[in-house]
Design goal:
Layout (H helix, E strand, L loop, with lengths): L2 E8 L4 E4 L1 H11 L4 E6 L5 E7 L4 H13 L14 H10 L2 E7 L2 E2 L5 E7 L4 E11 L1
Antiparallel strand pairs: 1-8, 2-7, 3-5, 3-8, 4-7, 5-6
The structure holds zinc ion.
Zinc ion binds next to loops.
């Protein structure tokens, strides 16, 4: 089996959740030692990114900076649900990331983690991990 689905219960309005260990576990279960792994988020107000894991302040600053680029309130927004800021952040981050697997391990920098990014919580969320041999 090389497709995995994971559920997240996110209590915060915005949060970056490290999912690297979950992806590592899926790769191990798949038995695939060389190929690629895609981590995919099927939501329009969340996303997947890869960024620094050493200093938690980076996550704070990431969310703060995105909040400045895509403000929560703007009289010109039309979308009735009132979460256009979260839709824009989702597209800016992207719905998926792909990482190379070699010798059974993801090629990630020592400071890199894979993050599920919530931009419109609290919500129940899912992400998929697909591992392809090659
Ligand atoms: Zn919406």
């Amino acid at each position: 089996m090389n497709l995995f689905k994971h559920e997240l219960r996110i209590e915060d309005e915005e949060k970056m959740i490290a999912i690297t260990d979950t992806v590592r576990g899926d790769i191990e279960k798949s038995g695939i030692v060389s190929g690629i792994v895609t981590i995919y988020c099927p939501h329009t107000t969340a996303g997947i990114t890869i960024n620094e894991n050493a200093d938690a302040d980076v996550q704070h600053d990431f969310l703060y900076g995105f909040g400045k680029i895509f403000p929560k309130y703007d009289n010109e927004y039309l979308h009735e649900e009132g979460n256009s800021f979260a839709h824009m952040k989702s597209s800016a981050v992207g719905a998926s990331k792909t990482v190379i697997i070699e010798n059974g391990r993801m090629i990630l920098g020592i400071w890199q983690d894979i993050y599920f990014c919530e931009f419109d919580g609290p919500r129940n969320r899912y992400f998929y991990v697909k591992i392809i041999k090659g």
